[in-house]
């Protein structure tokens, strides 16, 4: 399927993964320097389902097992950034939660990869750009959104790419380019523009496979790119096997990140993803 056909379907909003209105509003709110925690509280309370899931997550052992009985308490205890990322995760989980239409596209593996990438991005962010760490979690979580669009509009081609990736022990982006002539990052970029996602998140979605092409947010996109590769190296990918990936020394140098730090980051990601699975009840949603 030609890329312009996908673009037309996205423009027409034909059977796209549904992004909850509350998530769009939360992302806009976080871009507003004058927004307060009370604004966030009021916004969350408009969606009872998200409010209930937020409270459940806030009371989970993953977030310290606080006794949180209200949205207002959740916001004050967890903080603005953590609550925003929980809402992103919960909303995104709903998009992923439907059964896969493809026998080869494993949505549970997809979700684990997204969580692992997000977790790695936050860890690297805390090490190298602490003020962006929580934002980077959300960007990592959404970086492969284009795959969900391809599942809707190019199922046969996605199925073929998944099978080829397994047969060739390669990555889906490589096989998608062989089948379609483009990969999921191009598709995700069009969806990000349609949804009017924040600029940094859009860049991470579009350029995480080639961050050197990003002229606006290269440094944070490199973080997401490295995080994506870390997730794949430890087996959180579409195939569920470790990939033999050498992270670019150019990317590591750009962040002043030493190679010997990667092993420690990978171990933390493995532990954190296991906790996140329990906290977000991913198996039930898949």
Structural write-up:
The structure is a single chain. With 286 residues, the protein is an all-alpha fold. Helices cover 69% and strands 0% of the residues. The longest helix is centred in the middle third of the chain and has 22 residues, at 107-128. The protein is globular and about 50 Å long. The two termini are 28 Å apart. Mean pLDDT is 85; it is low at 282-286.
Name the structural class.
Answer: mainly alpha
Oligomeric nature of the chains? single chain
Portion of residues in beta strands equals under 5%
How many strands appear in the DSSP assignment? 0
Query: Number of helix segments?
Result: 17
Shape descriptor: globular
Helicity level, as a percent range?
Answer: 55-70%
Give the averaged pLDDT, no decimals.
85
Distance between the termini: 28 Å
List low-confidence stretches. Answer: 282-286
Radius of gyration: 18 Å
Order of helices and strands: HHHHHHHHHHHHHHHHH
Described by strand count, sense and barrel closure, the largest sheet is: none
Please render the helix and strand layout as text.
Blueprint: H1 3-12, H2 21-30, H3 37-45, H4 48-58, H5 71-78, H6 80-96, H7 107-128, H8 133-142, H9 146-153, H10 155-168, H11 172-180, H12 184-194, H13 199-207, H14 218-233, H15 249-255, H16 260-280, H17 282-285
Question: Which short descriptors sum up this protein?
Answer:
286 residues, mainly alpha, 17 helices, 69% helix, 0% strand, globular
Please sum up the structure shown:
The chain has 17 helices and no strands. It has 286 residues and is mainly α.
């Amino acid at each position: 399927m030609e890329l312009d056909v996908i673009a037309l379907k996205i423009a027409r909003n034909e059977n796209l993964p549904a992004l909850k209105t509350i998530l769009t509003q939360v992302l806009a709110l976080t871009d507003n320097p004058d927004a307060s925690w009370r604004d966030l509280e009021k916004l969350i309370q408009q969606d009872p389902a998200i409010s209930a899931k937020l409270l459940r997550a806030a009371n989970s052992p993953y977030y310290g097992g606080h006794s949180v009985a209200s949205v207002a308490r959740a916001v004050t205890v967890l903080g603005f950034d953590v609550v925003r990322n929980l809402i992103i995760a919960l909303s995104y989980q709903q998009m992923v939660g439907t059964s896969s239409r493809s026998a080869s596209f494993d949505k549970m593996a997809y979700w684990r990869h997204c969580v692992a990438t997000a977790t790695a991005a936050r860890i690297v962010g805390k090490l190298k750009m602490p003020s962006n760490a929580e934002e980077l979690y959300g960007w990592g979580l959404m970086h492969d959104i284009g795959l969900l669009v391809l599942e809707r509009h190019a199922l046969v081609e996605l199925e073929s790419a998944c099978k080829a990736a397994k047969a060739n022990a390669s990555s889906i982006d490589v096989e998608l380019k062989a089948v379609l002539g483009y990969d999921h990052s191009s598709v995700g970029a069009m969806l990000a523009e349609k949804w009017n996602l924040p600029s940094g998140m859009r860049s991470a979605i579009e350029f995480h496979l080639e961050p050197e092409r990003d002229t606006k947010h290269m440094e944070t996109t490199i973080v997401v790119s490295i995080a994506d590769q870390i997730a794949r190296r430890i087996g959180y990918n579409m195939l569920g096997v470790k990939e033999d990936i050498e992270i670019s020394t150019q990317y590591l140098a750009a962040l002043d990140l030493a190679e010997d730090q990667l092993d420690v980051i990978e171990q933390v990601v493995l532990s954190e993803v296991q906790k996140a699975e329990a906290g977000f009840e991913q198996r039930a949603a898949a």
